[in-house]
Automatic annotation (TrEMBL):
<dbReference type="Pfam" id="PF06568">
    <property type="entry name" value="YjiS-like"/>
</dbReference>
<dbReference type="InterPro" id="IPR009506">
    <property type="entry name" value="YjiS-like"/>
</dbReference>
<feature type="domain" description="YjiS-like">
    <location>
        <begin position="33"/>
        <end position="67"/>
    </location>
</feature>
<protein>
    <submittedName>
        <fullName>DUF1127 domain-containing protein</fullName>
    </submittedName>
</protein>
Length: 76
C-alpha cells in the first residue's frame, strides 16, 4: 500500500486549518453544553410549577395543563 504524504506550502497553512477545526469543535461542544443547561432549566421549572397549588398557578396566569408550555416558553 502506498501512502501519499501531503506537503503544505507553508506551516502556517496547516496551522490555520487545525485552528479552524478546533474552533468549530469548540463551538459544537459549547452548543451541546448550552442545550443541556437549557434542558435542565426547563425540567427544573416544570417540576417547580407542578408542585404549586392551583390557586398560585391561577395567580400567575397559567393552568395545570399549560405548565409544560410555560416551562418551555422562557427557553425561546
Amino acid at each position: 500500500m502506498y501512502i501519499k504524504h501531503v506537503v503544505f506550502s507553508s506551516p502556517s497553512y496547516a496551522f490555520a486549518g487545525l485552528e479552524r477545526l478546533s474552533v468549530a469543535l469548540w463551538q459544537s461542544v459549547c452548543g451541546v453544553a448550552e442545550r443541556v443547561v437549557e434542558a435542565n432549566r426547563c425540567r427544573r421549572d416544570y417540576e417547580r410549577l407542578e408542585e404549586l397549588p392551583d390557586f398560585l398557578l391561577d395567580d400567575i396566569g397559567i393552568t395545570r395543563g399549560e405548565i409544560k408550555a410555560a416551562a418551555r416558553r422562557n427557553a425561546l
